[in-house]
Fold this protein.
Amino acid sequence: MPQVTADIDALVKQLVLTDDIKEKEKLARQIHAEAKTKGIFLASIHDAYIARGKGQGKNFTTPAMNLRCLTYYLAKAVFRVAKKNNAGAFIFEIAKSEMGYTSQPPIEYVGVVLGAAIKEGYTGPVFIQGDHSQIKATAYWENKAKEVAGLKDYVADCIAAGFYNIDVDSSTTVDLKRPTLKEQQRDNFEVCAAMTAHIRKLQPKGLEISVGGEIGEVGHKNSTVEELVAFMDGFNASLPKGLTGLSKISVQTGTSHGGVVLPDGKIADVKVDFDTLKALSEAAQKKYGMGGAVQHGASTLPDNAFNKFPEVNAIEIHLATNFQNKTLDSKLFPKDLYAKMMEWTKANCQSERKATDTDEQYIYKARKRALGQFKKEIMSLPENIKDGIAAELEKNFEFLFKQLNVTNTKEFITATVKNVDSTIGLRASQAHLDGEGDD
C-alpha cells in the first residue's frame, strides 16, 4: 500500500480529473483503505436519529451539505470546522440531479470526501447521503415499473460506493386531485416502501442505512400533520414485515430549491412556517419513532433563521445553493473562467429559461449546469485560489454549525453510530444520473 497520506492531494486530483470510471474505482479504493487505517469510516446516521427521536442527546439539526464544485477543498474546510467545534452530526450529500450536471459519480464523491477527512486528520464516522433519489414524475406516469427499476439501479450504485444514507423522493408522484389524503399519497408511500425494501437487501450486514421519505415536493404547498399520518400509515402497511422503516421525513414549510429569484437576480426573503415544522417533527418522533422532520431548500434563508431549526426539533436541514453562490461569486474566482462558463450556459441551457425570466434570473438558475462542463478547469485552478475560496466558506460552515447546535455532538454520534466493516465496490455509470430535485 503506498503512503497515501503524503500523496492524498495528488490522489484526489487524479480521482477528480480522470474520465476512466475503473481508474476512479481503483483510486477510491486506495483512499478508502487508507481512511480505515486512520480510524475514519463510512456510516449510517440512522441509530443516532432514532435515539434523538426518543429524546436522547440535545436538540440539534444536522446540516446536510451538497458540495457541487471544489468538493475536496470545501470538505476539508468542513472537517476543520468539525474538529474545532467537536462536531459529529454533519452530512455530505449530493442529489441524483447534481451528480449529472456536476459530473460527480458516487464513487468519486465518496473518495473525495474521505480524502478530505484524511488530509485534515479527522477520525470517526463520515456520513455520505444520496439526496433526492427521485422519481421523475413524467417518466413514472408513462411507465411506472421502468422508472422505479431505474431508481433502484441508481440507489444500488450509491450504496456500493458507500452512501449509507439515502433520501427517497417519490413525492413527485403525489396527486392532489385525488379525493382523500391516503389516495393522494398512495403512489408516494408505495414507491417509498418498495425502495426501502430494496435498500435493506443491499445494505452491508449489521448496518441499517438511514432512509428518508418525503411527503411534500419542495416549492409547492406546505405539508400538514394529516398528510404525514396518511403517508406513514400507508408506508408502514406497505413495507414488508420485519424490515426497518424510515429514520426521518422531509416536509415542505415554505422554501424552494435554490430560493426564489427576483428579476434583478437577488433572492427573495422566505418565511419558514416554524410552527408547522415543529408539529411535523413532533408527530414524526412521537407517533412513528423517527428522528424528526427534515427541511429542504434552506441554504438561501436569512442568517437569523438557522438557530430556530434546533428550537423546533427539526432533525436535518439541506444546504446547497448558497455554497455554490459563494464559490462562483467569490472575488477569487477567475473572471475569465466565469465568463466562459456563462457563455456556455447561454448557448446550451436555454431550456432552463422561462419566457418571463430576466437575464439575471436565467443565469442564476442555469449556471449550475456549467459546473460539470468546467469541472477540470475549476479543479486545476492554482492552489491559493482554491484554498482561498474554501477559507471564505469555512466561516459560513462554522456559523451554520453553531446556529444548528451541532457543536459538541461528536460523543453522542460516536456512542450511537456503528462502525461496520464494509468494502466499497462500483456499479457506477452516469447513464441514469438525472432528476429535478436539489437544494
In short: Residues 5-334+381-416 form a domain with the TIM Barrel fold (CATH 3.20.20.70).
